[in-house]
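Training component of the fellowship. As part of building independent skills, the fellow (R.M.) carried out the full modelling exercise for a liganded target. The chosen ligand was FE2/S2 (inorganic) cluster. The inputs are recorded below so that the supervisory panel can assess the work.
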Amino acid sequence: MSYDAKFRVWRGDEGEGELVDYTVEVNEGEVVLDIIHRLQATQAPDLAVRWNCKAGKCGSCSAEVNGMPRLMCMTRMSTFEPDETITVTPVRTFPVIRDLVTDVSYNYEKAQQIPSFDPGDTKPGEFRMQQVDVERSQEFRKCIECFLCNNVCHVIRDHEENKPGFAGPRFLMRIAELEMHPADVADRRNIAQEDHGLGFCNITKCCTEVCPEHIKITDNALIPMKERVAGRRYDPVVWLGSKLGIV
Ligand code: SF4
Ligand code: F3S
Ligand code: FES
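Fellow's submitted model of the complex:
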């Protein structure tokens, strides 16, 4: 069954913009990205939108649909009433380039700042591990880098000034992934706390709620990292050792 849906789409660039109303045909089984593509094909050929896989795997089509951070390609039109107006805006935490496309360089800068996997003296092919030891790191590897978690985190959502000192849930989770990996020998607790702002996180769990891969970011990455940092800070032996410069 086809019907005409009312869409309100943000149009503009980094300078200024506005919400523009459109009426677009919807067919059975379609997702929000299909409607945005039809809008481009029929009424707004200059509408800028970023997408790639249309299968929820590339993380490119992040936007806010009726105020909720979502992948447009995974948001079914059947979740809305046919007479509802659907508002599509760019993700708010990153600067707009044009229309629905934002500049997500912040995320790549943070990714670069995290020290990479450190196998110590172990040579490639030497390390053996049990599946159970890497399950947690594998959960975090499901990340498709849609940055919806970073977009929704209140620490940076309306606080540009916090961006230099906070890597956001996606990259604090990356630090946790390496810290929990049995073959990585680096101690990443200070890096998380001092360089990447783990202490800013007050466990609101908004990041976990929006993750399209259903990764338990807060419970499995952020809270355990906080516990490890606290363990280091409040363990009297570690405290004495750090004063003597031996741990
Ligand atoms: Fe997206 Fe989830 Fe990865 Fe965050 S952790 S970037 S929400 S897939
Ligand atoms: Fe932000 Fe997630 Fe912590 S939304 S405050 S990083 S629990
Ligand atoms: Fe790839 Fe939506 S187009 S996740």
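The panel noted the following from the submitted structure. The radius of gyration is 21 Å. Residues 143-149, 170, 173, 210-213, 215, 217 surround iron/sulfur cluster (ligand 1) (CB under 6 Å).
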